[in-house]
Amino acid sequence: MAFREFTRSDRMSAQILRIVAVAVREEFEYDKELKHVAISDVDLTRDLSIATIYFNTLFPEYHQEALTILKDNAPFIRPIVAKKIRARRVPELRFVYDASLERGANLESLISKARNSDPGLEEEE
Fold first, then answer.
1. Is the pLDDT score of 83 beyond 70?
2. For the chain, does the N or the C end have fewer beta carbons within 10 angstroms?
3. Could you tell me if residue 109 is inside a domain?
4. Residue at 60 is within a domain
5. What's the total number of domains in the chain?
6. pLDDT mean over 58-72
7. Could you tell me the CATH number of the domain that includes residue 58?
């Protein structure tokens, strides 16, 4: 039975994801731009020096403001991460907006338009 072992970067990125998600929710609860932010993924470089943190927003119109606030507050979030992980060096935090939800909704609407415009499809079903 073959199984995949998790690398140190996988374990550390999962830890950082949990810590940053809680920190954003608790530390910035009064910012309306960050009130509906969800951390979706964390990618770490192989040398564990840079953590790219992907986030989504419930209201896409606030994504640019949220990105600005997160980038400006990354130096304040990093010590929170440092206190809770076991590592000699804490990676630099870089925030990136994850637009995959919008792309998925757009693709779904295109597919439904194509299905509705195809007259032969209704006869088959």
1. yes
2. N
3. no
4. yes
5. 1
6. 87
7. 3.30.300.20
